[in-house]
Amino acid sequence: MTYDLSTTFSDNAEDIPSALSWILHTFGSEIPTVGDFGRDQSKTQGLNITAQLNAGIRFIDFRIGYTRNSPFGLKSAWYNLHFMQSQHDCLYHLQEVRTWLDAHPGEIVVFWLSKHGSECATGEDQYPGVSTEEKRQFWAQIQNVFQGLLFNRDQGDLNSTTIKEMLALNQRVVIYAADYSDFTANSTLAYDSCLIDNRLGSGVDSEIQAYASEISEFKTAAANKVKSKAQNKLFLRSMATSGGGTQIEDAFLLRYFGAINAKKNREGCAATLHIPNLTDWCPSALLDINQLANYYKQLTLEEAHLNGWDIPTIYIDAVDADGTIRTGTAVLGGSDTVSEHEATRYPYVDTLLAANIRRACQSGVPAPADCSRLDAQIEQRRKKYPLEVWKDETHGRLIDWPVTTSQHRPNNDKLI
């Protein structure tokens, strides 16, 4: 939901003390452009939720918090957050999803509701300062938005219910809720988010480790899916990334005190990313970092595809139109692009679909002719956005890094 972030800092913003977040929420937007800077360091998506759904996204990491609706407001409501508060409240976004689902009766969407991606935190550790009554009032509103669509565990568990059966029941919304007992009163219309096996990885500032971690995860994904299914868990892999404190600090200094020690600040910022020959660029926004990370994450996704490995459920930043992720240098939602590789993309959704088709066909259920047809269709779609690597040391895009010994290292016909 970060495409909708406002310039207002969220109450109880993650990673900082509550008192400081209250001060920033109340007074931060009164300081010219500081809220804009905060939003730039928090925004990870450029497409709205309808556009993301149209692009093929079916898992939604829905970060929420109960906060004052304006810096000096007396009323509170549930808003999305990622350090900053969303412009619209949560119900606005949930209704957008409901409208899309009504127009697409053959689709299923999975939500994970939490404050900051903590699966098992409860009470004050999950939603500080929020009463049980306030949580359950919101849960009642969620049930109202998705009335008739919520998956009901009374009629069977996810690990024993097929997609065909879910569609027949019209139960097409699955919710994993943090603080499950207090939030939903143990409702059978939701799952405890403790049932999410959320695997985290390294960021772009540790790309060699991130690459190795992702390859290892994809190699073992098939076995881990079997294990998770037996435990009725959702096997989830984060391919999202974030900026570091030093990068944010240097970006702040460059934005507001640009002429003072500018070269030193750019070089110091660049050094924190640990990418060879990247020496004089400081990403000014989190989306810059997300798209740089995607440039390297396309390599592991492509390697998984070429090797025929399975792929877990993934959440990732900088989703672009037509089921792609942005790997180029122009920030999503910015000005029109004019130069080569500013808007380069990778076929993220079709790569995951290819893995799903491969797994289904290995089960022997679809007819071989259907498998061949679907494989051909997916590969034709993937060719629209082939993996591209190019040499742009200024912005951290390299051709032959990180080094890998795999014989299936992706080859590229469009090396620049």
Structural description of this entry:
This protein has 416 residues and is of the alpha/beta class. Helix content is 38%, strand content 14%. It contains 14 helices and 13 strands. It has helices at 18-27, 34-40, 49-54, 90-103, 132-145, 163-169, 180-184, 207-219, 221-230, 245-256, 262-271, 286-307, 348-362, 368-382, and strands at 5-9, 59-68, 76-82, 84-89, 109-114, 173-177, 191-192, 196-199, 234-238, 313-315, 319-320, 324-326, 345-346. The protein has a 7-stranded mixed beta sheet. Helix 7 links the parallel strand 6 (173-177) and strand 7 (191-192). The protein is globular and about 65 Å long. The relative contact order is 0.10. The model has no long low-confidence stretch (mean pLDDT 91).
